[in-house]
Design brief:
1% strand; 10 helices
């Protein structure tokens, strides 16, 4: 019988872990700058909770989570921060849109594609997979009840509203009506596709899969490929990321359909993403300036915490797999 308290704890964990992964582990903010969590937790955490809840209640899996993550990306980057359209995002003068610029759409193809990697995989996917690893017995079941879902939705909507207002007032930029319209239409298409794609009908194939160490290592290098795309080569950077995405999705599709694929393999991919974020933070400057010592200490602390979460999740997931295997053996 399921334990509702464990579901509540899992939901709360995801609510706060998602923004820590998305912004703090990445290195955008130091751990001493916690004020943004007031908005970031409802936005990232609320969004991740809603995506996970809709997916699990529909009996669907990671393709649905990734597609809903794409819709989430367009909401955040197209409406809230508007980095998809603002040539001077966050006032940092980074010229993010100049790489593979598409004048007709007013976007940079590289930055748009990069964001469509960052949010679906890291902000949403990694966060959900880590927390499901911490609570493996509840990994495929809903965590929110009839009250929890509307609460998460309200928190998410409020966070999006206040973040949008703050961004407009601070950076004095508003995208065009056509850009907002196209963004909304594409977000709806992503959300619809998430539930229209067919569920796998065939039984898992009895074929071998690489060890979780290998799948994690492969995910780590593919994550590095996305972040270290050759930006000076313009459109080649777009092709580079698309190749990395295709390799990741193809390998995941092939091996995850085999019976030897376990929750440890899924966790290994999330662990690789989290560790890459934590290591990349050391070469990335924060969005909000802070003393170098504070930034360095923050990176070290968050990377250690990420390692601790991964270790605990791996131990619990391995234990749950053993329990399930024992139950199957007893039934036979």
């Amino acid at each position: 019988m399921s334990n509702p308290q464990r579901s509540i704890l899992a939901a709360i964990t995801l609510f706060f872990l998602a923004p820590l992964v998305a912004e703090y582990l990445l290195g955008d903010f130091s751990i001493t700058f916690l004020k943004p969590l007031i908005v970031l937790a409802p936005m990232y955490g609320g969004g991740a909770l809603l995506i996970r809840e809709l997916t699990r209640r529909a009996g669907r899996g990671w393709p649905t989570i990734f597609l809903l993550g794409c819709a989430y990306c367009l909401i955040e980057e197209g409406y809230t921060t508007q980095t998809l359209f603002n040539p001077n995002a966050f006032g940092l003068h980074l010229h993010l849109l100049s790489v593979a610029w598409i004048p007709a759409l007013g976007i940079g193809a590289w930055w748009t594609l990069f964001m469509l990697n960052v949010h679906p995989f890291w902000s949403i996917g990694v966060s959900i997979a880590l927390v499901e690893g911490l609570f493996p017995s509840r990994a495929r079941t809903p965590w929110l009840g009839n009250i929890g879902i509307p609460v998460a939705a309200v928190l998410f909507a409020a966070a999006v509203y206040f973040s949008t207002v703050f961004s407009i007032r601070r950076y004095h930029f508003i995208a065009s009506a056509s850009q907002f319209t196209v963004t909304g239409v594409i977000a709806i298409l992503f959300a619809a596709a998430a539930f229209l794609i067919p569920k796998p009908k065939s039984q898992p194939r009895p074929e071998p899969v690489p060890s979780p160490w290998i799948t994690g290592l492969a995910a780590f290098f593919l994550a590095a490929a996305v972040f270290f795309a050759p930006i000076p080569l313009n459109w080649a950077a777009v092709a580079w990321i698309l190749a990395a995405d295709l390799a990741f999705l193809l390998l995941l599709w092939v091996f995850s359909r085999r019976s030897a694929w376990t929750a440890l393999h899924t966790l290994s991919i999330a662990a690789a993403g989290a560790l890459f974020y934590g290591m990349h933070a050391f070469i990335q400057g924060p969005i909000v300036p802070a003393p170098k010592g504070t930034v360095l200490a923050s990176h070290v602390l968050l990377l250690v915490l990420a390692l601790a979460v991964i270790a605990i999740a791996a131990r619990r997931t391995r234990g749950w797999i053993s329990v399930e295997s024992g139950s199957v053996a007893s039934a036979q």
